[in-house]
Amino acid sequence: MGRFDGILLCSDYDGTLAGPDGKVSPENAQAIRYFTENGGLFTLATGRSPDFVRQMCAVLPLNAPVMCLNGGAIVDPESFRVLEICPLPQSATAILPQLAHPEATYQVDLWYGDCQIIRWRLDSGRPLAGAFDAVPSPLFKAVLINSQREAAERMRDTAKETYAGLYRFERSWPEGLEILHESAMGRLRTLILRGKSDELQQKLAATQPLFLDVLPLTLEEIFIYELGGAGHALSDMVL
Predict the structure, then answer these.
(1) Which CATH architecture has domain 8-85?
(2) What does pTM read for this prediction?
């Protein structure tokens, strides 16, 4: 028997297991491997989507079902199949238009069905209310991205006061960016982000940086950071 038989260790990822650079340190990864090799069960509980599980399996020895979308879906780390779902109640879709800010909310991401995502953007030509027309079901998670930090904080506080005990509302990554790697030198920040270059540049420009440059990743860099799919960018900016 292993010394960790019967022990389950579950960790958050962003800001917990991952360091400021968005990566798991070699020391932590080695400790987790030692834990699982000696009978322990290790998994993650994260707000990220099921696609993230596939990436993490190349880095961490996940050997227990992973909780994604803040508990909305449980994913098998071997087959990447969704094992269980816990969607939001139907009433949740009714409050989204009430929370969205008519001027500050410029993007709405909705995870639904078999953990697919539908994305509405202000520049799509549709009014904000159109983002919530015929919201697909079941709905697991809704992200309202605002161009103004103050508007996002007011939205969160209003939601918590109005719907206390019914739903959970949190302020997520600034500017709605999925940061895969981050480093800093003085006031210069280097970010590796997931997404399409033009969309990322628009989001970064909304923060009004003193300097902004967006560069595509090389194939070698994509391999190093184990990013799948199209559209990645390397960004330097001063906040």
Answers:
(1) 3-Layer(aba) Sandwich (3.40)
(2) 0.62
